[in-house]
Inverse folding.
């Protein structure tokens, strides 16, 4: 992409690398009818046969030793071609990425991630020290060569729009018919024109007219994505399986074991992978009834025995005409894909399951977000940003390397542009432009960093005036905590939640507690000597 940059933190410095967008279109082999027609043509001869063999549509024949052996018999070449075609050995046509449109749903209020979503949209929440959640589906689209992307937004979308404009700007380089466009919730004339987005399906419905626009005429399939998942996926393989199966709708799913299955919407499939029905977060006997033979989707017998359930990832591929029919005519009042459109469609449309047997995490809650971030520090992590072949892109910030002076850092990620002096960091993530002073102990903590620097003179003036600068002050001890951007934590602060409080809201003191995790809100101020 033009402005997109893959950022990798390496302890005390950062490495940025640019990557161009799209590979060339892969060409499929001709249809049986076309090839057979060609084989009957009077123009068939040595050149055509050689071309076909070079593309692996004909078996190779021994080279002629000398001219005395005579010319190749065209009839034998044609017979070999017919036999190859009848055996079905020709390769299936590959999906052209230009015929695929991606829609990323980013308009939810994000109540489960509050207070991280107090002033930003859910896809704009920082992750991994240097990225935002929206970078995950956007990078998957880029790495899958999908260059038509819409992002639907509604709540607190200012920072999300700014990040998208800075990072995924297609305007400076010609990407053909590719685009990245933000579609904000709007009000229009008409009976329902005054309504904001009522759900995921309604958000797409309100922009159906745009998906039929002239620039989208070549689109055959629409990929619906969520903005709050952490995973790395080749969407073109997803779409390829969708087309090969002849499905109207294909749902991406992950295998689940007994311990986690009841937390997700589960699917029941037949022996051909067709979805029969859904059950949302079943318990007890209802859970047992949702077991399926996951070897049908490609798992080994051992894997299938350990994970006998499949859970929807909330990622779908629709035939474009089917999507238009469902939203406009068949279910004009349905507001949600997962709970309304998809379960109802399984009764009358060909809905197939696509198995994604790799790391995937729904990080829509404070607890899951916190755990997924700290899991990045594991050795080796289940998900890694350190993949040069399929990078996660983000905004280029041009920050200097991190400076570390007399510190102890263990199993942690230190992003770029940080200043650490005489502190201890253990099993934590330290975000961009973070400042940690002497005597600090940071453990099991996700620190998002800051949007700007304060000079040494500014810091000295603030301290002299009895105010608190950005970052964490001297001799503070922090654990099991999320520190949002631009937070100011004073000296000798203790954040440990020793009383194991599960839920609390103290906005006047700059913090919340959600499922036992302390969250210092964005721009929050924690005074010197505070104990949480």
């Amino acid at each position: 992409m033009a402005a997109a940059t893959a950022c990798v933190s390496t302890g005390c410095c950062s490495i940025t690398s640019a990557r161009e967008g799209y590979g060339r279109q892969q060409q499929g082999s001709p249809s049986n009818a076309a090839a057979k027609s060609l084989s009957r043509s009077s123009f068939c001869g040595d050149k055509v046969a050689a071309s076909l063999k070079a593309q692996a549509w004909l078996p190779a024949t021994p080279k002629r030793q000398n001219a005395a052996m005579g010319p190749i018999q065209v009839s034998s070449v044609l017979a070999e071609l017919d036999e190859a075609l009848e055996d079905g050995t020709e390769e299936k046509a590959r999906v052209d990425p230009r015929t695929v449109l991606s829609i990323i749903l980013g308009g939810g209020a994000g109540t489960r991630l509050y207070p991280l979503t107090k002033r930003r949209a859910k896809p704009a929440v920082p992750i991994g020290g240097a990225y935002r959640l929206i970078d995950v589906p956007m990078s998957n689209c880029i790495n899958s060569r999908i260059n038509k992307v819409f992002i639907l937004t509604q709540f607190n979308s200012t920072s999300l729009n700014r990040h998208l404009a800075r990072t995924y700007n297609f305007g400076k380089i010609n990407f053909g018919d590719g685009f990245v466009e933000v579609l904000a919730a709007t009000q229009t004339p008409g009976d329902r024109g005054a309504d904001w987005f009522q759900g995921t399906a309604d958000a797409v419905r309100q922009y159906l007219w745009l998906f039929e626009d002239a620039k989208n005429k070549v689109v055959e399939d629409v990929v619906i994505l969520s903005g709050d998942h952490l995973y790395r996926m080749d969407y073109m393989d997803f779409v390829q399986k969708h087309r090969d199966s002849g499905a109207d709708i294909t749902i991406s799913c992950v295998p689940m074991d007994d311990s986690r299955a009841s937390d997700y919407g589960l699917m029941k499939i037949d022996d051909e992978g067709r979805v029969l029905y859904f059950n949302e977060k079943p318990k007890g006997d209802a859970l047992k009834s949702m077991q399926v033979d996951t070897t049908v989707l490609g798992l080994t017998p051992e894997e299938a025995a350990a994970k006998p359930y499949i859970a929807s990832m909330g990622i779908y591929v629709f035939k474009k005409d089917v999507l238009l029919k469902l939203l406009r005519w068949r279910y004009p009042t349905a507001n949600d894909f997962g709970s309304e459109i998809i379960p109802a469609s399984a009764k009358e449309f060909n809905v197939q399951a696509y198995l994604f047997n790799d790391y995937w995490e729904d990080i829509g809650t404070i607890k899951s977000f916190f755990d997924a971030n700290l899991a990045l520090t594991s050795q080796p992590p289940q998900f890694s940003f350190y993949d040069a072949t399929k990078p996660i892109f983000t905004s280029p910030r041009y920050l200097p390397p991190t400076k570390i002076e007399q510190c102890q850092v263990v199993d942690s990620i230190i992003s770029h542009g940080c200043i650490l002096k005489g502190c201890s960091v253990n099993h934590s993530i330290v975000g961009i432009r973070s400042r940690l002073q002497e005597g600090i102990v940071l453990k099991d903590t996700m620190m998002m960093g800051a949007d700007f620097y304060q000079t040494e003179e500014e810091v000295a003036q603030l301290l002299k005036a009895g105010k608190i600068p950005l970052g964490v002050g001297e001799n503070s001890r922090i654990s099991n905590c999320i520190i949002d951007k631009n937070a100011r934590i004073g000296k000798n602060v203790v954040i440990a939640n020793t009383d194991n409080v599960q839920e609390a809201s103290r906005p006047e003191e700059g913090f919340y507690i959600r499922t036992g995790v302390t969250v210092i809100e964005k721009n929050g101020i924690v005074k010197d000597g505070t104990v949480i």
DSSP finds 15 helices and 32 strands in the chain. Residues 378 and 411 are 7 Å apart (CA to CA). The first strand starts at residue 5 and ends at 9. Residues 74-86 form the longest helix (13 residues).
